[in-house]
Amino acid sequence: MAxxxxxTLMDFTADELNGLISRAIELKTMHRRGxxxxxxxxKVLGMIFEKSSTRTRVSFEAGTAQLGxxxxxxxxxxxxxxxxxxxxxxxxxxxxxxxxxxxRTFEHExxxxxxxxxxxxxxxxxxxxxxxxxxxxxxxxxxxxxGSIKGGTVTWIGDGNNMxxxxxxxxxxxxxxLNIATPVGYEPDGTLVAAAGNAVTLSHDPRIAATDSxxxxxxxxxxxxxxxxxxxxxxxxxxxxxxEALMQLAKPxxxxxxxxxxxxxxxxxxxxxxGSQSVVWNEAENRLxxxxxxxxxxxxxxxxxxx
Length: 307
Ligand code: CP
Ligand code: NVA
What we know:
Layout: H1 14-33, E1 44-49, H2 55-66, E2 70-75, H3 87-95, E3 100-104, H4 108-117, E4 122-124, H5 132-146, E5 153-157, H6 162-174, E6 177-181, H7 190-196, E7 200-203, H8 206-210, E8 215-218, H9 230-236, H10 244-247, E9 255-258, H11 270-273, H12 280-306
Parallel strand pairs: 1-2, 1-3, 3-4, 5-6, 5-8, 6-7, 8-9
Helix pairs in contact: 1-5, 1-12, 2-12, 3-4, 5-12
The structure holds phosphoric acid mono(formamide)ester (CP) and norvaline.
């Protein structure tokens, strides 16, 4: 069997993903009880960051320490990767020294190339195209709050970006209907939408997309790397704010999610993100537990492969 990586949600089966969510919930309980559980003893996680991060860095680093392992933070600003050492060479070298690697970078092709040359599992900690770790945390939060999301309706409001793409994959894997509302010109990748078939509906009307939804999700209007487009995007997305009027069109017990960091007054009003339907802190905390479950799974798979 080939070495397993987690570059998108489609790298795992639906059963494996649901298994990870259940395991994350278990690990959260164990952590809160103060149980010591150290399957990563003597294991090392390499963490490559070519973009900023708060949640991802801290959750991977803290999670590895809690599992008994050690994490090494590698920024492109002070490694040879940032000075042009080929990705293939970096992958060969790093994967000969550590047990598992996570990468946050720009082009998705870069992480694919890194994984191709790696001897150890590689985790996508965000690319321009996907953010699958966040979806594990979000799906865990939904299960904790409401139970299974299968058969439910989720609404994505705003940019057809990396988070939106991972929600499209999640709609396929977790079996929910996804209504996406973006401004014209900011639609998600057409190939991904086509692959999702009936699971995904595209529109340019946030009100229609939000109606009768179980979960409303949004994200920043300008992602990392798009800072220069901020002003143009503010104009294009002005009618795409998730506010109380929009939330009222969803089901009365609908939840609100945002991967954070958030811009209150832009993509979401303060009343919504700080209101009773918002579960953003639950989502953020779950990054820790979901990624612990993910690392445990990938290390176990890698061990079985070498048996
Ligand atoms: N949601 C998320 O990935 O946050 P960071 O950019 O802080 O890691
Ligand atoms: N879409 C955002 C997500 C940040 C966690 C970005 O890529 O900047």
